[in-house]
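Before our next group meeting I need something from you. Please put the record directly below this note.
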Amino acid sequence: MPQPRYDQHGRLLSDAEFIQRFAEAVTANVIAHYECGFTKDDLKVGVTPEGCVVATKKTYFETPIPNRLSPEEFQRLGNTLAALLDSIDARTVDAEMIERIRRENDVEQKKQAISEARRR
């Protein structure tokens, strides 16, 4: 039986909603890096059943998953994240969606952490 999944505010999510929200949280890390001057080639994005990582030579953003994903969920997350990142890179995501992702995942705070890491 699948584990219940919740958002950062404790709201119960369907599997599809959880995968989408999680992909958006990882995408927020990518957006923050882009807004700090990093390029797609600078970033390493990793996806495992336990979570995702967005990293550069100076930064490491880990987004853990509380309960390990099933193989099917893992594949769906990878596909959803890849499609979202591809649409960000192709600039086909509408501005409202990007703004919602930025707001709900506090991209400004992430940018501050990235800026601090770059100064080290």
Remarks:
- The chain has a mean pLDDT of 93.
- The first helix runs from residue 15 to 35.
- The beta strands are 5-6, 12-13, 44-48, 51-55, 60-64.
